[in-house]
Design goal:
Distance between the termini of chain A: 31 Å
Number of domains of chain B: 3
CATH class of the largest domain in chain B: Mainly Alpha
Number of strands of chain A: 17
CATH architecture of the largest domain in chain B: Up-down Bundle
Oligomer: heterodimer
Number of strands of chain B: 12
CATH topology of the largest domain in chain B: Fumarate Reductase Cytochrome B subunit
CATH superfamily of the largest domain in chain B: Transmembrane di-heme cytochromes, Chain C
Chain lengths: 542, 459
């Protein structure tokens, strides 16, 4: 200890040395802290390439002479629109909002028409044979039969998208027409629209225009999507960070940007190709997280995966629809309904059993932007398996694939066990063959299949089906997004995605046991060595 | 050398011949502890990432694991540079020499209280097993962890440019390396306790100083080097033809030479008067045959034509057991006129005696040569005693003055003093003394003594 000098000097030296040693750690802490902090304060620093058009419309439609007339039906309004906005109707008539189908190439190479017009789902099953009900959400008037004139521009419904008054409404069972005379449906009364007032106040589409149909898919609020519900009319930040009324207050078309009536965005229940999509990256460009480890995740993890931790945050969404239980009658031989504690219908004689859920945790799948749909007539190879109504393609081996969150809607629906096809049933109608009225599956199937032009063996059964709904809306505030540990742990949210290594989720048991043995072995080894040394040393001293 | 060894043996019988040496340089210690802390931190955060437990939170664990990994990489780059720049990498060259003995010691010898088979010296800090282990650590575990770690960090997805093994394999290799590191850590900490003094080894890693075994050769080289550095002795080295290869500043000063180029590659005889040249050449020849001279009185011819007197040592330099030249030291004795007549009295022992006093004048350290001159067998009889012990009463005033002068920061060289040996006899010696510094404070006095046996007779 002599060379080191006095105790005081030694302490000084030690302190200096300790400072020297701790300096890099201070640096490590500062770097780490700044990265952590800036990610938490991301709202202040976020760079978004988005300019919301908040300017008022440059045109006052109420000044136009042609709109000052008294309209008696909506087609006259359309003609008035087209008289100025000539050719705009041709744009609308090219979209799937109008056609309900488009030419798409299936994975087997066939080019077929795919769309609402012909695909099957596991909610109300098909629009075929049920048109007059389903087309209440068609941007046209009068599509009730097979032979609808898709070339008649007068049938284009301009108002459903451009009404800004909220006074315009289509009839629920009116083939796309608004109501003609005051009429009550269930617990709501519908009035004929005041076309003159509405026409003088047309403008850019608002949330209400889109929501009118898209929030009520499947016949009720939030039934189908799970991430699109009437909660988005007046959402707070918790509900949707983008549409937050007190904050960004974005509307649907701010993201679903539209050019010449082609609205970007699509859903993989009715389309299968990777095009015309809306992406987060359109606005959220560049280094979206300060933490590069998070940024590297973007290659294989969709934004939605972490930022939509739950869906159906307000209104419940339908998770299961079991048609096989339909047809039961109460003691008086009448159709009846059952409700759960939140007044969601859980059983309906003419519909079957429903299961509703709120704040649902999504399921996760690999997805590369392409999909396939079950199209009526497709033969089910293996009827013991759950039928995939739509298949999202992708895998960890495919570098275009990302993990996305989905709502999986599970159902049990009617199928033909002889032809091994799903059945297009006639559900809605005034006639008794409509299952809705007659509660007779055989008749319903016969009529439905005939209208679809498909063979029906006369035998029916029920089969389990799954339908995948990618979740894109109701993005949660950043604090609520998934944490690393949600996936990187033994209890990973991604535990169903197999075949690749996720740190924290996966390990090699053999290696871990080997490692633990190695460490325990070393430890026990030195302990034994130490004990022998201790006793031998005693022995030597003695 | 023979006598020295005898004394060495005597001392060794009671206590290992050791000295305190600065064996871990500041950077080395910084590197060791930073690396140790970083590795421990990486192990802690790493096993959290492996889902072995929850501590910092997964995101934070990854974030800090990555930053620590970058820090370690930078540290390793600096360390590699340092090891090559200083030549310290040689410490890690594995050797099979004594590996068996060392292993035997850990397996059997340690239980019987057997001595360590290898000695820790400042030139050889690690025992053969340590060398092997640290070598493996540096060229195997660390590179595997660094490479697999950075692949783990950046090779996440198939589209990344670095793509040669699967992500899972990378992760598994990295995990295995972590287990190896942990095992190393346990063994490393335990083996610390098998050293001569675990506490001292630990302190050495903190402060750099440790008691290390001394070989007489090393001691000689070391202390003479200090003597050289302190400008007390002039150093020279000749090649096998008697041409100057190197001289130090002190040599130049003594020879009143201003340009080193005037000396280098000149025949050694330029340093002598004509009449002494033959004598010198003969001596050089003898040295080249393997003889050593430790105290030749010489008269030098300086470059400005004046002359001076010094005591000269000469010994052969070896390279691969072959004599390649001559080297030695000169210590000026120009002021010692009477010595002139005693030129045949060569100094019996040119081993410089080393001593160190603390600020109060108590002996803190003396070396074997010092003990021999003072006819003292046990070092313990000296350490802690006041220097007045080694002086006659009449000389004490002079000694006090020297001590005071040095404590004020001055250096004293070639002062002739009379020592009082342990048995009461006295003898003359040439003394040098210079202050010992620590953190810019003078914390003592140290110096060398060279025996002048001829003067002892005079007295």
């Amino acid at each position: 200890m002599k060379e080191d000098g006095s105790t005081g000097c030694k302490i000084r030296k030690f302190v200096m040395f300790a400072i020297l040693i701790s300096l890099p750690w201070y640096l490590i802490y500062v770097i780490g802290y700044s990265i952590e902090e800036s990610d938490h304060a991301i709202n202040d620093t976020i760079k978004v390439r988005f300019n919301q058009d908040k300017k008022p419309s440059i045109v006052d439609h109420s000044k136009f002479e042609i709109l000052k007339q008294e309209f008696t039906n909506p087609m006259e309004v359309t003609e008035a629109c087209v008289s100025c906005h000539n050719k705009r109707h041709t744009e609308v008539m090219q979209t799937s909002h109008w056609n309900w189908s488009r030419d798409l190439v299936r994975p087997n190479g066939d080019t077929v028409k795919i769309g609402k017009e012909n695909v099957i789902n596991n909610f109300c099953i098909t629009t075929q044979s049920n048109r007059w009900k389903c087309t209440s959400c068609h941007v046209g008037y009068g599509w009730s039969e097979m032979e609808f004139d898709f070339k008649d521009y007068k049938k284009v419904d301009c108002l459903v998208c451009h009404d800004t008054t909220g006074a315009y409404e289509k009839e629920p069972f009116g083939s796309g027409f608004p109501i003609k005379e005051k009429k009550a449906f269930t617990n709501k009364t519908y009035f004929p629209p005041n076309y003159s007032y509405i026409a003088k106040n047309v403008g850019k589409s608002k949330v209400e225009n889109c929501g009118k149909c898209h929030f009520y898919g499947g016949g009720g609020d939030n039934v189908k999507h799970g991430d699109l519900s009437s909660d988005l009319y007046h959402p707070d930040k918790e509900m949707d960070v983008h549409m937050d009324e007190t904050g960004t207050n974005m509307s649907c078309v701010d993201c679903h940007q539209t050019e010449r009536h082609n609205i970007t965005g699509k859903l993989y229940s009715v389309s299968n190709d990777d095009g015309n999509r809306v992406t987060c990256e359109k606005c959220h460009t560049g280094k979206v997280h300060k933490n590069n480890t998070l940024n590297r995740h973007i290659n294989r993890i969709a934004c939605q995966t972490c930022h939509i931790p739950t869906y159906a945050k307000g209104k419940a969404t339908k998770m299961i629809w079991d048609w096989s239980t339909a047809g039961k009658l109460d003691s008086e031989g009448k159709k009846y309904k059952e409700y759960d504690s939140l007044h969601n219908v859980t059983y309906k004689s003419d519909k079957g059993t429903y299961v509703w859920e709120t704040n649902v945790e999504p399921e996760y799948v690999w997805f590369n932007g392409t999909a396939d749909q079950y199209i009526p007539g497709d033969v089910i190879e293996d009827t013991t398996q759950v039928v995939q109504i739509n298949t999202l393609f992708g895998s960890h081996n495919d570098k275009n694939s990302k993990i996305i969150p989905v709502k999986v809607h599970r159902g049990k629906q009617i199928f033909d066990p002889v032809n091994k096809t799903l059945i297009v049933p006639h559900i809605y109608g005034h006639d008794s063959t409509a299952y809705h009225h007659g509660l007779n599956w055989n008749l319903s199937a016969k009529v439905g299949m005939k209208e679809a032009g498909l063979p029906y063996s006369g035998k029916y059964s029920f089969i389990s089906t799954e339908m995948y709904w990618p979740l894109n809306h109701m993005v949660s505030p950043v604090e609520q997004s998934l944490k690393c540990i949600d996936c990187h742990s033994k209890n990973s949210k991604l535990k169903n995605l197999k075949g690749f290594y996720i740190p924290g989720r996966d390990n090699n048991n053999f290696l871990d046991i080997l490692g633990i043995f190695m460490i325990m072995g070393t430890f026990i080894g030195v302990m034994i060595h130490a004990v022998i040394r201790f006793f031998k040393a005693k022995h030597i001293i003695n | 050398m023979q006598e020295f060894k005898t004394i060495g043996k005597v001392i060794r019988a009671e206590k290992e011949l050791t000295k305190r040496a600065y064996i871990y340089k500041a950077f080395e210690r910084f590197w060791h502890w930073s690396q140790a802390l970083l590795i421990m931190f990486l192990v802690i955060t790493g096993f959290e990432i492996h889902s072995s437990y929850q501590l910092l939170g997964y995101e934070r664990a990854i974030l800090y694991h990555d930053i620590a990994a970058w820090s370690l990489l930078i540290l390793i780059i600096f360390a590699i540079f340092w090891h090559f720049a200083t030549g310290a990498w040689k410490q890690y060259i594995p050797t099979m020499k004594l590996v068996k003995e060392q292993a035997n010691y850990y397996i059997f010898g340690i239980f019987k209280g057997a001595p360590h088979p290898t000695k820790k010296t400042s030139y050889n800090k690690f025992n053969p097993l340590q060398r092997l282990t640290y070598f493996g650590f540096k060229v195997f575990i660390i590179p595997v962890q660094v490479i697999s770690g950075f692949l783990y960090m950046y090779y996440m997805y198939p589209e990344n440019p670095i793509h040669f093994i699967g992500f899972d394999i990378t992760a598994l290799i990295h995990t295995f390396g972590a287990f190896m590191l942990l095992a190393f850590l346990i063994a490393h900490l335990y083996l610390l306790t098998t050293g001569e003094s675990p506490k001292a080894s630990f302190a050495a890693m903190l402060f750099g100083w440790e008691e290390v075994s001394v070989t007489p050769d090393e001691e000689h080289r070391d202390h003479m080097q200090i003597a050289v550095d302190n400008s007390i002795a002039g150093y020279y080295r000749l090649d096998e033809n008697g041409l100057f290869l190197d001289v130090n500043d002190a040599w130049m000063k003594l020879y009143k030479c201003t340009d080193k180029n005037n000396v280098l590659n000149m025949k050694c005889t330029i340093a002598r008067k004509d009449k002494d040249k033959d004598e010198l050449l003969k001596t050089v020849e003898k040295v080249l045959k393997g003889e050593s001279f430790r105290g030749i009185y010489s008269e030098r011819k300086c470059f400005d034509g004046t002359t001076g007197n010094h005591i000269l040592s000469m010994n052969p330099t070896y390279e691969n057991d072959k004599i390649t030249g001559v080297e030695g030291f000169i210590i000026d004795i120009t002021d010692i006129h009477r010595v002139e007549e005693q030129m045949f009295h060569s100094v019996r022992n040119s081993e410089a005696g080393y001593y160190r006093l603390n600020t109060k004048g108590y002996y803190e350290e003396v070396n074997a040569a010092w003990l021999k001159m003072y006819k003292c067998v046990d070092k313990e009889n000296v350490i802690g005693k006041h220097y007045s012990l080694s002086r006659q009463e009449k000389d004490l005033k002079e000694a006090d003055e020297i001590f005071k002068t040095v404590l004020s920061g001055k250096t004293i060289s070639s002062k002739i003093v009379t020592r009082r040996c342990k048995d009461g006899t006295t003898a003359k010696q040439v003394l040098s003394a210079n202050p010992v510094y620590d953190c810019d404070n003078i914390i003592g006095v140290e110096g060398f003594i060279i025996d002048l046996p001829g003067l002892e007779v005079e007295e």
